[in-house]
Here is the input.
Amino acid sequence: MAFSRINKLDPPSRGVFRRAAVMLCSLLCSLFLLHCLVDTTNTISPSPVRASGGRCAELFEDLRSLRSKRLVHEWSAAGSELKGYGRAAPPPADEESVILPPPDLVSSGRVSPRFAGKLSPLGEGSKKLPQALIIGVKKGGTRALLEFLRVHPDIRAVGAEPHFFDRNYDNGLEWYRELMPKTLEGQITMEKTPSYFVTREAPARISAMSRDTKLIVVVRDPVTRAISDYTQTLSKKPDIPSFESLTFKNRTTGLIDTSWSAIQIGIYAKHLDNWLQYFPMEQILFVSGERLISDPAGELGRVQDFLGLKRIITDKHFYFNQTKGFPCLKKAEGSSKPHCLGKTKGRTHPNIDPEVVQRLRDFYRPFNMKFYQMTGRFFGWDD
Here is the structure.
């Protein structure tokens, strides 16, 4: 009876066989992966995984590659949705807790370039001595240039002026290095201290750090620069003497007081002579402070070329602020909002006696002409 009842049962369905086959395959795969894991563990070495674990290691490498491609796809999708320029979001509080796609994937275009240099990979990134310096000049436009450059994903820069090569040199290079932000392979570390250009010891000290350091000097009409310099001092010390009295040793004779720093800084040719004793001219770029206002994208293009970087900062990053009288960023580093330099920039200059202005122009003219010849660029300050 029991046998006859068994014969009367329906045969197993195909679904049962399919589920059994899947379970069997899963078991075999698990055993195989476990074997591979043991094999890889026993043969692990400092060399790459593919070379140390045989066929099993290759399988793990392929699996990791598939995972990387999935992550890259997610990064690319996120990057394609970002609008604007520069840093899409503020740097994370803990930069080392974020995984970054490999540099070759970034360069290949499979990952949005906005992620390059914005996130630090786990355990990577290091502080390096700067490869490029903005060395001058005071009141020439160095702050504007630095803020514009920080939009570039391959530039990491210190915001404050370290004053290492003029005031803090005795602290040593390691102290200086610690001030720098962490950078990845291919990124440039920068800082700006405008007083370097007029510090006699600075060229030798920078050359001792690295003879390959690239130097950027923002220059401006020396007469306008001197008045701007005085205006800044006046805002801090309202009781200082007038610009006219500080300009001359003797106003009757018209002898200019070149010991006054506001005048001395503008003798660009004299200071440049000192730098050329340690650096060739091709390692120094001169940026026009006037063109930084009238054509910021053009000047930034020259700077990016000089640094060997792709021209990422373009016209689309700027708008002209009529109230302040200079260009501002549509979006600043780490922000989605427009950004202009603070109220300390673009101060209204006091009225200066036109005769004093003309005497200053006459004084600077021969120095300007020598500077044009040395740099091979005509800045138009004597028109």
The first strand starts at residue 126 and ends at 127. The two ends are 120 Å apart (CA to CA). Confidence is low (pLDDT under 50) at residues 1-9, 40-53, 63-123.
